[in-house]
Specification:
- By secondary structure, this protein is mostly helical.
- The chain has two domains: 90 residues, Helix Hairpins (Orthogonal Bundle); 111 residues.
- The chain is built from eight helices and no strands.
Protein backbone atom coordinates (compact mmCIF):
# COMPACT_ATOMS: atom_id res chain seq x y z
CA UNK A 1 0.00 0.00 0.00
CA UNK A 2 1.16 3.53 -0.79
CA UNK A 3 1.61 5.48 2.45
CA UNK A 4 0.46 8.69 0.77
CA UNK A 5 -2.74 7.73 -1.04
CA UNK A 6 -3.40 4.23 0.27
CA UNK A 7 -3.48 2.76 -3.23
CA UNK A 8 -2.12 -0.65 -4.06
CA UNK A 9 1.02 -1.23 -6.13
CA UNK A 10 2.85 -4.24 -7.59
CA UNK A 11 5.61 -5.63 -5.38
CA UNK A 12 8.41 -4.25 -7.54
CA UNK A 13 6.85 -0.92 -8.47
CA UNK A 14 9.11 1.99 -7.55
CA UNK A 15 6.44 4.67 -7.70
CA UNK A 16 2.76 4.56 -6.79
CA UNK A 17 0.60 4.06 -9.92
CA UNK A 18 -2.07 6.37 -8.42
CA UNK A 19 -0.24 9.35 -6.89
CA UNK A 20 3.22 8.75 -8.45
CA UNK A 21 5.00 9.17 -5.09
CA UNK A 22 8.11 7.07 -4.51
CA UNK A 23 7.30 3.93 -2.54
CA UNK A 24 9.08 2.74 0.58
CA UNK A 25 11.21 -0.39 0.29
CA UNK A 26 9.04 -2.27 2.76
CA UNK A 27 8.31 -5.03 0.28
CA UNK A 28 10.18 -5.95 -2.85
CA UNK A 29 11.34 -8.91 -4.88
CA UNK A 30 14.91 -9.86 -5.73
CA UNK A 31 17.65 -7.85 -7.42
CA UNK A 32 16.58 -9.05 -10.85
CA UNK A 33 12.99 -7.91 -10.44
CA UNK A 34 14.07 -4.67 -8.79
CA UNK A 35 16.10 -3.75 -11.88
CA UNK A 36 13.51 -5.14 -14.29
CA UNK A 37 15.80 -7.89 -15.57
CA UNK A 38 14.98 -11.54 -16.35
CA UNK A 39 16.41 -14.09 -13.92
CA UNK A 40 19.03 -15.23 -16.42
CA UNK A 41 22.75 -15.82 -16.03
CA UNK A 42 23.77 -14.37 -19.38
CA UNK A 43 22.78 -10.72 -19.32
CA UNK A 44 23.84 -7.85 -21.55
CA UNK A 45 26.25 -5.70 -19.52
CA UNK A 46 25.18 -2.57 -21.42
CA UNK A 47 21.54 -3.22 -20.49
CA UNK A 48 22.45 -3.69 -16.81
CA UNK A 49 24.35 -0.41 -16.92
CA UNK A 50 21.48 1.39 -18.67
CA UNK A 51 18.91 0.24 -16.14
CA UNK A 52 21.20 1.11 -13.26
CA UNK A 53 21.73 4.66 -14.51
CA UNK A 54 18.04 5.16 -15.26
CA UNK A 55 16.97 4.04 -11.79
CA UNK A 56 19.82 5.96 -10.16
CA UNK A 57 18.46 9.17 -11.65
CA UNK A 58 14.90 8.35 -10.56
CA UNK A 59 15.89 7.57 -6.96
CA UNK A 60 18.57 10.22 -6.48
CA UNK A 61 18.06 12.01 -3.13
CA UNK A 62 18.64 15.39 -4.80
CA UNK A 63 15.24 15.04 -6.50
CA UNK A 64 13.59 14.60 -3.11
CA UNK A 65 15.27 17.47 -1.29
CA UNK A 66 11.95 19.26 -0.67
CA UNK A 67 9.84 16.09 -0.35
CA UNK A 68 8.41 14.63 2.82
CA UNK A 69 10.63 12.79 5.27
CA UNK A 70 9.07 9.48 4.19
CA UNK A 71 9.87 10.16 0.52
CA UNK A 72 13.46 11.18 1.32
CA UNK A 73 13.91 8.00 3.32
CA UNK A 74 12.40 5.93 0.48
CA UNK A 75 14.78 7.48 -2.07
CA UNK A 76 17.78 6.63 0.13
CA UNK A 77 16.53 3.08 0.71
CA UNK A 78 15.97 2.46 -2.99
CA UNK A 79 19.28 4.05 -3.97
CA UNK A 80 21.15 1.83 -1.51
CA UNK A 81 19.31 -1.31 -2.60
CA UNK A 82 19.93 -0.43 -6.25
CA UNK A 83 23.68 -0.17 -5.60
CA UNK A 84 23.64 -3.61 -3.94
CA UNK A 85 21.70 -5.05 -6.89
CA UNK A 86 24.08 -3.52 -9.41
CA UNK A 87 27.17 -4.86 -7.64
CA UNK A 88 25.67 -8.36 -7.52
CA UNK A 89 24.42 -8.53 -11.10
CA UNK A 90 27.06 -6.69 -13.11
CA UNK A 91 29.69 -9.39 -12.59
CA UNK A 92 28.99 -12.93 -13.93
CA UNK A 93 30.61 -14.59 -10.90
CA UNK A 94 28.64 -12.67 -8.27
CA UNK A 95 25.54 -12.96 -10.47
CA UNK A 96 25.77 -16.74 -10.35
CA UNK A 97 26.33 -16.74 -6.60
CA UNK A 98 23.33 -14.48 -6.12
CA UNK A 99 21.11 -16.59 -8.36
CA UNK A 100 21.97 -19.70 -6.36
CA UNK A 101 21.17 -17.88 -3.13
CA UNK A 102 17.85 -16.43 -4.31
CA UNK A 103 16.85 -19.84 -5.71
CA UNK A 104 17.58 -21.45 -2.35
CA UNK A 105 20.69 -23.35 -3.46
CA UNK A 106 23.28 -21.11 -1.86
CA UNK A 107 26.95 -22.02 -1.86
CA UNK A 108 29.45 -21.93 0.96
CA UNK A 109 31.84 -19.04 1.24
CA UNK A 110 35.27 -19.61 -0.37
CA UNK A 111 36.72 -20.04 3.14
CA UNK A 112 34.18 -22.71 4.06
CA UNK A 113 34.53 -24.40 0.68
CA UNK A 114 38.26 -24.79 1.23
CA UNK A 115 37.70 -26.94 4.35
CA UNK A 116 36.15 -29.89 2.53
CA UNK A 117 37.61 -31.37 -0.64
CA UNK A 118 34.96 -31.83 -3.36
CA UNK A 119 34.85 -35.57 -4.25
CA UNK A 120 35.58 -34.88 -7.93
CA UNK A 121 38.91 -33.29 -6.95
CA UNK A 122 40.11 -35.76 -4.32
CA UNK A 123 42.65 -37.57 -6.49
CA UNK A 124 44.10 -34.37 -7.90
CA UNK A 125 44.32 -32.74 -4.49
CA UNK A 126 46.18 -35.70 -2.98
CA UNK A 127 48.61 -35.78 -5.89
CA UNK A 128 49.25 -32.04 -5.63
CA UNK A 129 49.81 -32.17 -1.88
CA UNK A 130 52.36 -34.96 -2.29
CA UNK A 131 54.16 -32.98 -5.00
CA UNK A 132 54.19 -29.83 -2.85
CA UNK A 133 55.66 -31.78 0.07
CA UNK A 134 58.45 -33.09 -2.17
CA UNK A 135 59.10 -29.62 -3.56
CA UNK A 136 59.33 -28.12 -0.06
CA UNK A 137 61.77 -30.85 0.95
CA UNK A 138 63.88 -30.29 -2.17
CA UNK A 139 63.91 -26.56 -1.53
CA UNK A 140 64.95 -27.00 2.10
CA UNK A 141 67.77 -29.31 0.94
CA UNK A 142 69.14 -26.54 -1.25
CA UNK A 143 67.74 -27.48 -4.65
CA UNK A 144 68.30 -24.70 -7.24
CA UNK A 145 65.34 -22.32 -7.59
CA UNK A 146 65.02 -23.10 -11.28
CA UNK A 147 64.46 -26.78 -10.48
CA UNK A 148 61.73 -26.48 -7.84
CA UNK A 149 60.05 -23.59 -9.64
CA UNK A 150 59.82 -25.71 -12.76
CA UNK A 151 58.17 -28.44 -10.71
CA UNK A 152 55.66 -25.93 -9.31
CA UNK A 153 54.88 -24.70 -12.81
CA UNK A 154 54.33 -28.28 -13.92
CA UNK A 155 52.09 -28.96 -10.91
CA UNK A 156 50.02 -25.91 -11.77
CA UNK A 157 49.21 -27.00 -15.33
CA UNK A 158 46.63 -29.75 -14.57
CA UNK A 159 44.95 -27.52 -11.98
CA UNK A 160 44.65 -24.71 -14.49
CA UNK A 161 43.27 -27.19 -17.04
CA UNK A 162 40.68 -28.27 -14.47
CA UNK A 163 39.75 -24.64 -13.87
CA UNK A 164 39.31 -24.02 -17.59
CA UNK A 165 37.13 -27.13 -17.86
CA UNK A 166 34.98 -25.84 -15.02
CA UNK A 167 34.57 -22.50 -16.78
CA UNK A 168 33.32 -24.32 -19.85
CA UNK A 169 30.93 -26.41 -17.75
CA UNK A 170 29.55 -23.32 -16.01
CA UNK A 171 29.01 -21.64 -19.38
CA UNK A 172 27.16 -24.68 -20.67
CA UNK A 173 24.99 -24.97 -17.56
CA UNK A 174 24.30 -21.23 -17.59
CA UNK A 175 23.03 -21.45 -21.16
CA UNK A 176 20.86 -24.40 -20.14
CA UNK A 177 19.43 -22.43 -17.21
CA UNK A 178 18.63 -19.44 -19.43
CA UNK A 179 16.89 -21.70 -21.95
CA UNK A 180 14.73 -23.15 -19.16
CA UNK A 181 13.86 -19.67 -17.90
CA UNK A 182 12.95 -18.47 -21.40
CA UNK A 183 10.85 -21.57 -22.11
CA UNK A 184 9.19 -21.75 -18.69
CA UNK A 185 10.87 -25.05 -17.87
CA UNK A 186 9.78 -27.28 -15.01
CA UNK A 187 10.93 -26.67 -11.45
CA UNK A 188 12.56 -30.12 -11.40
CA UNK A 189 14.63 -29.39 -14.50
CA UNK A 190 15.69 -26.03 -13.09
CA UNK A 191 16.63 -27.60 -9.77
CA UNK A 192 18.87 -30.13 -11.50
CA UNK A 193 20.73 -27.35 -13.32
CA UNK A 194 21.06 -25.28 -10.15
CA UNK A 195 22.50 -28.21 -8.21
CA UNK A 196 25.03 -28.84 -10.97
CA UNK A 197 25.97 -25.15 -10.98
CA UNK A 198 26.35 -25.19 -7.22
CA UNK A 199 28.72 -28.17 -7.43
CA UNK A 200 30.78 -26.43 -10.11
CA UNK A 201 31.04 -23.28 -7.99
CA UNK A 202 32.21 -25.21 -4.93
CA UNK A 203 34.81 -27.03 -7.02
CA UNK A 204 35.89 -23.78 -8.67
CA UNK A 205 36.43 -22.16 -5.27
CA UNK A 206 38.60 -25.07 -4.21
CA UNK A 207 40.55 -25.00 -7.48
CA UNK A 208 41.24 -21.30 -6.96
CA UNK A 209 42.51 -22.11 -3.46
CA UNK A 210 44.86 -24.74 -4.90
CA UNK A 211 46.25 -22.29 -7.43
CA UNK A 212 46.67 -19.68 -4.69
CA UNK A 213 48.60 -22.27 -2.66
CA UNK A 214 50.98 -22.90 -5.56
CA UNK A 215 51.47 -19.16 -5.94
CA UNK A 216 52.32 -18.87 -2.24
CA UNK A 217 54.94 -21.61 -2.63
CA UNK A 218 56.49 -19.71 -5.51
CA UNK A 219 56.63 -16.52 -3.44
CA UNK A 220 57.97 -18.30 -0.35
CA UNK A 221 61.18 -19.24 -2.06
CA UNK A 222 61.90 -15.79 -3.42
Amino acid sequence: MCRDCGGGAPVDAHFCPQCEKILSLGRHGDYYAFMGLPRRLNLDSAEIERRFRTLSRQFHPDFFYNATAAERRASLERSSYLNDAYRALKNPVTRLQYLLEVEGVGTQSPADASKAVPPALLEQVFALNEELDEIREARSNGAPAAVWKARLDAARLPIEAKRDAHHAQVDELSAKWDALVDAGGSDAAKRDVLQALRDRVLERNYINNLLAGIERELNTGQ
